[in-house]
Amino acid sequence: MAVVADGEAVTYGALGALVHEFARRHLGQEGARVLIAAESDLRTVVAYLASFVTPTTVILVDPLSGPQSLTRTVDAYEPHVVVGVPSLEHTRYREAEPGHWVRREDGATGTASTKLILLTSGSMGVPKGVALDEPGLRANALGIIDRLELDTRSRSITSLPLHYAFGLSVLHSHLAAGGSLVVTKERPTSRKFWNTLSTGGVTHLAGVSFMYELLQDRFAGHWPQTLRQLSHSGGRLAPEVTRRYLDLAQRHEAQFFLMYGQTELMTRVSAFDLTRRPDKLGSVGLPLAGIEVACDEGELLVRSPSVMQGYVDSAEAIRSLEDGRPGQGFHRTGDLATIDDEGFIWITGRLSRTVKQFGKRISLDEIETYLRHEGDVAVIGSDSEIVICVTGPRSDANELITRTARAAGLPASSMSLASVPDIPRTNRGKVDYPALAALVAARPRSAQRVARDQRREPA
C-alpha cells in the first residue's frame, strides 16, 4: 500500500498507473511547469509525483492563498498547467476539465534541472520561491529515512500542508522508504483527524510547535496504539511542552525526534531521538548523513547535497538558473547557533529580522511594509509573538491586528499591539529595534491582543 485517501487504499502499482496516466495526458514538454494548489488529496499527490517521470518543474502553492495571490503567482511563473484550482479568472488559461487549467499558448520555457519551487512562507508581496533540484530532494529523503529508520512498515499522515517543506518531506521520505501515507484534509485538532490517527495504522506523526501545544491534553488522555514516532520542527518548542512529550513518548515506548531545517535546504538538516538522549533537551540534534555544519561568528553554516539552486520570483528567474548544482560552499542559514563537543546543534536566535510562527518563516520587515499607511509603526517579534508598535492609542487595535495577521497567514492571537510614546531611532534615522524591544518590555500592560480563547490555527 502506498496511499490511503478518502478511505481508499491505493497500492504502489495503482499509484504508478495514475501517475503515468497524468504525465501522459498533461505533461512531457521539456522545461514545462505545472502549478499545483497543494490540497492534501490524491490528485495533488498524483500530479506532483508525475513530475518525477517527466522533465517538469512543479510550483506548489497554498490552496487557501486566495485569488489575488494565485493570479500574482500565475503571472510571475507562467505555468503551462494549473491543477487543483476550482476557478481561475485569467484570459490566458482555459479549463480543460474541472479544476484543471491549460495555458492557451505555450508558457515560457524553464530549466529542466529545477524540479520543485516552494514559495517562501509568510510572503505578503512578490511570490518569491526556493528552487530545488531532484538530486537534492532525493538526498534529503534518504537522509531522513536513515535517521528515522523508516521502512515498508512506516506510515505517516498529512498533519502538515503539502506546500510546506516539512509536510512535503514526510511524503518524500515515507514513499521513498516503501512505506505509506494517509492523506486527509482534516486538521490535526479535529475529531476526524484524531480518529484516523488512532485507527488508520499510523506509526509516525510530524508537527510544528503550535500543533503539539494544542494536542498535549489529547495525547495525555489517549495515545494511538500504533503510533511509534513523533517528529517536531519549524520553530522553538517550549521546554515544558518538550518535557511533557518526552515523558509521554517514553511511557509508550515511542520515539520523539527533534529536528531543524530550512526550505532552502529542502527542510531537514538535523534530527535526533530525544528519548535516547534526554540530556540534550533543547538541541535540534546531529546533522543528517552527508551534511556538514559549522559556525561563523555565531551563525550556523550548512553544506548539504540538498541546498537550493537559488531564489526565484518569475519565469525569467527560473531560466536564469544555472543548469546544475550550485557550488559546494556552506549555506548561511541566518540562524545563531552553537555546536557542542558531540556535534549536537543548539539554535540560540536569528541574525535577521525573521521569525518562525506556526512553522512559517515570517519577515517582520514585510509586515512593516504592509503597515506603511498606518502612521508611525514598527514591528518587533520572536518565535512566540509579533508585536505591532504604534505611537499613541488606537481605537481599531483588534481590527488592525486581525487584518495584519490574516495578511501574514497567521492567527490573530499570534500578534499584539503596543502603544509607545515614540519609535526610537538611531543617528541614521533607522528604527532602533533593541531600544524599541526594551521600551515595550518596560510597558507590559500597554499591549493589546486578541483574547487567547480566540486562538486558532492559521486560515
Q: Mind telling me which CATH architecture of the largest domain this is?
A: 3-Layer(aba) Sandwich
- What is the CATH H-level superfamily of the largest domain? ANL, N-terminal domain
- What portion of residues is helical? 25-40%
Low-confidence stretches: 451-459
Mean pLDDT: 89
Structural class, by secondary structure, is alpha/beta
In whole angstroms, the N-to-C terminal distance is 32 Å
Strand order of the largest sheet: 6-7-5-3-4-8-9-19
Strand content: 25-35%
Question: Tally the helices: what do you get?
Answer: 13
Return the CATH class of the largest domain: Alpha Beta
CATH topology of the largest domain: Rossmann fold
Number of domains: 2
Architecture overview:
This protein has about 450 residues and is α/β, with parallel strands linked by helices. The chain folds into 2 domains: about 5-350, Rossmann fold (3-Layer(aba) Sandwich), CATH 3.40.50.12780; about 355-455, 2-Layer Sandwich (GMP Synthetase, Chain A, domain 3). The protein contains 13 helices and 27 strands. The chain has helices at about 10-25, 40-50, 65-75, 135-150, 165-175, 190-200, 210-215, 215-220, 240-250, 315-320, 365-370, 395-410, 435-440, and strands at about 5, 10, 30-35, 55-60, 80-85, 95, 100-105, 115-120, 130-135, 155, 180-185, 205, 230, 255-260, 265-275, 285, 290-295, 300-305, 310, 330-340, 345-350, 355, 360-365, 375-380, 385-390, 415-420, 445-450. It has an 8-stranded mixed sheet, sandwiched between helices. It has a 5-stranded mixed sheet with strand order 12-13-14-15-16. Strands 2-1-11-10 form a 4-stranded mixed sheet. A hairpin with a 2-residue loop joins strand 1 (about 5) and strand 2 (about 10). The two termini are about 30 Å apart. The model is unreliable at about 450-459 (pLDDT under 50).
